[in-house]
Amino acid sequence: MVIDLLLRTTWNEVFLTFAVFMGCGAIVSVSQRIPRVTGAVGRLAAVQASHGCPTPRIGGLAIFAGLLISLSFAPLAISDLYQKLVVGTGLVFVVALLEDMGFNISARTRLITVLIASSLVLMLLGAWIHRADVAGLDALLGHWSVGFPITLLVTAGIANGFNLIDGVNGLASLTGVVASLALACIAEAASYGPMVSLTLMFAAVLIGFFVWNFPFGRIFLGDAGAYTIGFLLSWFAVLILVNAPAVSPWALLLTVFWPVADTALAIWRRAGRRASTTMPDRLHVHQLVMRALEIHVLGRRRRHLANPLSTVVMAPCIIAPAVTGVMFWNDTVSAFLALVAFTTIFFTSYSLAFSIQRRLPRCKYVGHGIRKGVARRNRKFNPARGAPQLEASGAGLPSEK
Predict the structure, then answer these.
(1) Which of 30, 133, 224, 330 is least surrounded, with the fewest CB atoms within 10 Å of its CB?
(2) Cis bond leading into 383, ω under 30°?
(3) Rounded distance, CA 248 to CA 226, Å?
(4) Contact 258/269 with Cβ under 8 angstroms?
């Protein structure tokens, strides 16, 4: 089905990809002359940082420009609705862009902005999550007093989830492309043609950015890009749910499984430590994968390789749930069971990862004078409390601060 959709690609998608590609190139070329483009000076020392040199963080600017261009290509049947959706997205984009440029917009403020923007879109479109295909629950969701808050929670959670996974080259944008294509397939299967066009155009926009971000990380999404991707995709899913009655809501959730699961994991992890849910840490899955590659495969001081390779390693985990969502697009029971299975695998794998890595041989280039298998083992890990530091040369999996 994806191949069939790709064969239907028009010059509109090609132009959008080219326009965003050129926009990213322009940002990269001026970044050395405009320091504000790379954000605050302390970015490299941030707890969650995974890069080692100043890099332009306003890739979201090129992506949002691509969205504005796509307005002229939107099908007439959905053009007015799409314009309203982009207006709401613009509010999120502007506030997040200020953070990217070093104006220190707090995580709480950004989250409140997403909630306000979702409220605005909800009122403009008159659409919300009105069903879960669960007996009894649908009657509650159909009432605005329940459906509205749930919609705000879900859309804000997905937007924030994309920001959380934006930590290594290509991960968030790849997830966005996969989710866009999966939603396009579901919309096509449900005969919701206008949404097929919008999701394919958005995938084209993200591809224009992806080729600059992966594998070398010449430009980053920044908060503006990550929030924009998550916000727009969440509302695409809501509109499919509202306008295609045959589509399972759980299948739609599978298309964005990775950012949703990572967000749930972060909340559980920080709640167990009684830490603020907005406090950054170094225990996201992509960060653990990157450090594991450095410790056990590549060696230290090779982050330029471990960073993009982390995306390659995790790509199947991102694609599998989305493909499953497409397969079970109109089968609520199967989609729900698949979601439970993927969630179980996700949390179980995370819990076991630390005990497994202690038994793996370490690369002989982990640190000065440390050869494979010589470094002492970590203490027992409790995911709710954070990972302990490796006792030899600080080369272990990252610890939460």
Answers:
(1) 30
(2) no
(3) 26
(4) no
Q: One digit per residue, pLDDT tens: the chain, 401 residues?
A: 767 777 777 899 999 999 999 999 999 999 878 777 766 544 544 544 555 567 899 999 999 999 999 999 999 999 999 999 999 999 999 999 999 988 889 989 999 999 999 999 999 999 999 999 998 899 999 999 999 999 999 999 999 999 999 989 999 999 999 999 999 999 999 999 999 999 999 999 999 999 999 999 999 999 999 999 999 999 999 999 999 999 999 999 999 999 999 999 999 888 877 777 677 778 889 999 999 998 888 887 788 899 999 999 999 999 999 999 999 999 999 999 999 999 999 999 999 988 888 888 887 764 443 344 434 444 444 544 444 433 333 344 443 33
Q: How many helices, marked H, and strands, marked E, lie in the chain?
A: 15, 0
Question: What backbone torsions phi and psi does residue 193 show, to the nearest 5 degrees?
Answer: -55, -45
**Quick one: which of 89, 59, 3 has its CA closest to 211?**
59
